[in-house]
Amino acid sequence: MQSSQARIDSAAKAARAASRRLALLPRAEKDAALHAMANALEAASDRVVAANDQDVERGARAGMPESLQDRLRLTPQRVVAVADALRDLAALPDPVGDVVRGSTLANGLQIRQVRVPMGVVGMIYESRPNVTVDAAGLGLKSGNAMILRGGSAAADSNAALVDVMRTALSAQGLPADAVQLLDGGREDVGALITARGLVDLVIPRGGADLIRTVVTQATVPVIETGVGNCHVYVDAAADLDMALAIAVNSKTHRPSVCNAAESLLVHQSVARDFLPKVLAELAGAGVLLHTDEAASTAARVAGVSYEPVTDEDWATEHLAMEMSVGVVPSLDAALDHIDRFGTRHTEAIVTGDRRAARRFSAEVDAAVVTVNASTRFTDGGEFGFGAEIGISTQKLHARGPMALQELTSTKWVVEGDGQVRV
Amino acid sequence: MQSSQARIDSAAKAARAASRRLALLPRAEKDAALHAMANALEAASDRVVAANDQDVERGARAGMPESLQDRLRLTPQRVVAVADALRDLAALPDPVGDVVRGSTLANGLQIRQVRVPMGVVGMIYESRPNVTVDAAGLGLKSGNAMILRGGSAAADSNAALVDVMRTALSAQGLPADAVQLLDGGREDVGALITARGLVDLVIPRGGADLIRTVVTQATVPVIETGVGNCHVYVDAAADLDMALAIAVNSKTHRPSVCNAAESLLVHQSVARDFLPKVLAELAGAGVLLHTDEAASTAARVAGVSYEPVTDEDWATEHLAMEMSVGVVPSLDAALDHIDRFGTRHTEAIVTGDRRAARRFSAEVDAAVVTVNASTRFTDGGEFGFGAEIGISTQKLHARGPMALQELTSTKWVVEGDGQVRV
Questions:
Q1: What are the φ/ψ torsions at residue A278 (nearest 5 degrees)?
Q2: Is the dihedral of CA A44, A49, A52, A57 positive or negative?
Q3: Can you tell me whether residue B120 is helix, strand or coil?
Q4: d(CA A20, CA B365)
Q5: Number of other CB atoms surrounding residue B100 within 10 Å
Q6: Closest listed residue to residue A421, CA positions, set B357, B246, B286, B371
Q7: Contact A347, A230 (CB under 8 A)
Q8: Which NCBIfam families would you find in this protein's record (chains A, B) (predicted)?
Q9: A42-101 confidence digits (pLDDT tens)
C-alpha cells in the first residue's frame, strides 16, 4: 500500500494535469458538463440512495442521533435537489476571464488583471453529502480541479456521488481527475495540507477543531471558514417591534448554523420595555437564556427561567437553542463587547439612528455587518452568489460568503511592442 | 527580560489598539501624517545617516562585500528619496472605503462590499532600510498597524528611521504604535508568525530560506513574495531585433532582483539567426552563459565562452549576471519547460504571431505574463501603484506587485428595514 504522501502526490499531480485542461475550457463546455453531471446523478439516483442507506444504517448502529441521520440522508427527492444545484451553477456567470482592472501605461504598455482559476483546490469537510456535489460543481465552473476529503460518516454516499460525476466528466471528454475523493485515513489530510507546489489552496469546512488543525498544520494557503459567535445589538433608537423580529429570527430560524446569533445586547434605555418581551418570546420558542443581572431581572418580570451568564457563555458558539443576553450602557460598550467576544463573522445592529448605524458599520470588525436585518442573511445563496463553498472569517483573499469568484486568482497580462526598462 | 511570546503579544495588542484608530482615519489625516513623517525624516537626516554609518561600518568589519555595503548605505540624498516616497504615497488614492461591488436583493436588502484595512500586518525582511519607510508608509495609507522585523545588518538604521516616524505620528496626534520595530532575536519571528488572533497577515520579503521558514511555520495568514526564475521565450515569429533588446534588458538591467530573467528559450526555427547575436551581446555585457547543445554550437560560432547547462542551472534563480540558454522545438516545448522550471513569477514571450501570444498568455501559470516586453516591468512602481510591499507569487489574495489595495480586506455591509429569513 502506498504511503499517504505518495497517494496525495499522485492525486495532486493528476489534479494539476486536469486543472490545466479546465483552466482553458470555455464556459459553454463547463456548463454542458455541469448539466451532464446533474443528469447522471438523477439517472443514478437508486445507486446513490442505496450507498447513502449504508452510511445511514452504519450511523444508526453507532448511535448517531436522529437529527444527524436526517442531515445525512439522501432521498430520491434530495438527489434531484442536489442535481438542480449543479444546473443553477451552470446558469451563473463564469468568473474566469473577467478583467478586474487594467490601464495603458505612459510607455504604451497595456496591462490588465484577469481572473484565472486557482488550480488545485483541496477541501476538507464534515458536512452532508450535498457538499460533495456543490464543491465539485463550484470547482468545475471556476476551472479548478478539486481534491475532496469528506467525513467518514458519509463515505459510501460520497464515493457513489463522486464516481457518478467522474464518469459523467469522462463521457463529456473532460478529465475525470477534475474531481477526486480521498478515502484514506487522517494521514491523508496531513499530506494534503502540506503538499506545497501541488495544491494551491485548502478550505477546511467543519467544526472549530478541524479548522484549528488545518490552519496550524498547513503549509499550503488556507481559507479559514467560520466559527460564528454572532451578536444582535438593540440600540437606544431601535424600533422595538423590528428588534424583536430580528433577534428572534437571528437566534431561532436555524440555530445549528454559523450565521445564527448567539448573543443579544440591549441598550439600557430600552431594556425595561424590550427585554421582558424578547425574553418571553425566546423562551416560548424553547431558547435557554443566559442572562446578566439586568436581563435576569427582566426574565423574572416576564416569568421565564434563566441562568446567570458567564464569560464562557458570552464566548461560546452554541449552535443550539441557547442565547446569552445582557444590557449595555452605550453603543461604545456594545462595540467593546463585540470586539472582545465576537468571532468576526456577522454582527447586527437594530437602530433608527443614522449615526449609530454608521458607527457600528464602520467600527465593528467582521465579515458582515447588518443594519436592521437578521444575521441569517450571511449566506452565498442569499447574496445571489449561488451555492457557497463556505463563509470565510479571515481577512485574506475572501471574507464572508465564498463562491465562484473567491475560487479564482488573477494574472497580469502585459502587452507591448518591444518595451524595455530604461 | 520578557519572553518573545510576551513581547510580541504586547506589541500586537498595542498594534491592534492603534489599528482601530487608523481604520477610521479619513484620507486627509493619513496624508498629512505621511507628509509629517517625510519632513521629520529629512529634518533628522544627520541622525539617520549617523545611525546608518554604524551599520555600514559593522558590515565592513564583518567583511560585507562593497556592493552590499552600497545597498545598505543611506546618504543625505537617499534620505530625501526615502522621504519623497512617503509624499508620493500621500498623492495616491486611499483604497479604504472603496465599494468593490454591491446590489439590492429581491427582499430589499442593500448589500455592498467595502474595502477595509487588514488590521495588524507583520513584515519580515532583509532588505535595505528604505523598505522600513516604504512599509510604514504603505501601512499607514492603507489603515494598517505595521510590526516590522528588519534585517540585523540594518538594525541601527531601522531603529533611527522608526523612532523618527513614531515621533512624527505622535506629534500628529496619531498612535505611535501604528509602526513598531522588533529588535529581538529569531524567536521574535517565531512568535510573530504564530500570533493568531492578534496579527492578521505576515509578509516575508527576502531570500528563499526566509520565505520557506515563514510559510512552513506560520499559523497566521501569509503572503509569499517572490522567488523569480523568469524566462524569455523567443518565438518562431519574433521580431529578432526586439527579441534581442528584450532578452538583454530582462537579464542585465538589474540582475539582482526577482523580475530579472534567468533563462532564455529560443524556437529552433530562429535559433541559427538569433543565438549568435544574443549570446555575443550577453557575453559582452558580462553574462556567464549556461548553454544547451544547440546554444553551445551557436556560442562557438559567436566566439563566446559558455558552460553546458544542467537541470540545476535551469532551476536556479541566479540573481546575478548568469543565464541559461536553450533551443526548443515548439511553443508547446517552451510551455512545458516553463511549467517545469518556472516559479510562477514573470514569463515573457516575444512574438508577432497573435495565436502564439494568446496561447502563451492563457496557458502560462504565472503572476505576470508579458508579450513583447521586458520581464523587468513586474514592479508596483511601473504598474502605477506607487511603492510596493513585495511581489506575490502565490495565488491567494494577491498575485504580482502588491501595494495599497493588496493591504486591504473587505467587509460586507447589509442594510435593511427589518428583513428576516423566512
A1: -70, -35
A2: negative
A3: strand
A4: 9
A5: 13
A6: B246
A7: yes
A8: PRK00197.1 (NF001221), proA (TIGR00407)
A9: 999 999 999 999 999 999 999 999 888 988 999 999 999 999 999 999 999 999 999 999
Q: Which of residues 51-110 of B touch A (CB under 8 A)?
A: 103, 105, 109
**Residue B145: all three cell numbers together:** 498597524
Answer yes or no: do A415 and B357 touch at CB < 8 A: yes
Distance CA A413, CA A408 (A): 16
Q: In this structure, which amino acid lies at residue B55?
A: D
Comparing CB atoms, the residue among A216, A222, A409 nearest residue B395 is A409
Separation between Cα atoms, residue A189 and residue A328, nearest integer Å: 44
Enumerate the H helices of B26-124 as residue ranges. 27-43, 45-61, 66-72, 76-91
In this model, does residue B1 exceed pLDDT 60?
Answer: no
**Burial tier of A82 (Cβ tally within 10 Å: 0-12, 13-18, 19+):** buried
Contact A287, A323 (CB under 8 A): yes
Q: What is the pLDDT of residues B23-81, one digit of tens each?
A: 999 999 999 999 999 999 999 999 999 999 999 999 999 999 988 898 899 999 999 99
Bridge partner residues of A116 (DSSP): A409
Q: What residue ranges define each of the domains in chain B, with the CATH number in brackets? A: 4-224+394-414 (3.40.605.10), 230-377 (3.40.309.10)
How far apart are alpha carbons A38 and B36 in whole angstroms?
Answer: 62
Q: Do A246 and B367 touch (CB under 8 A)?
A: no
251-310 of A, contacting B, C-beta below 8 A: 253-254
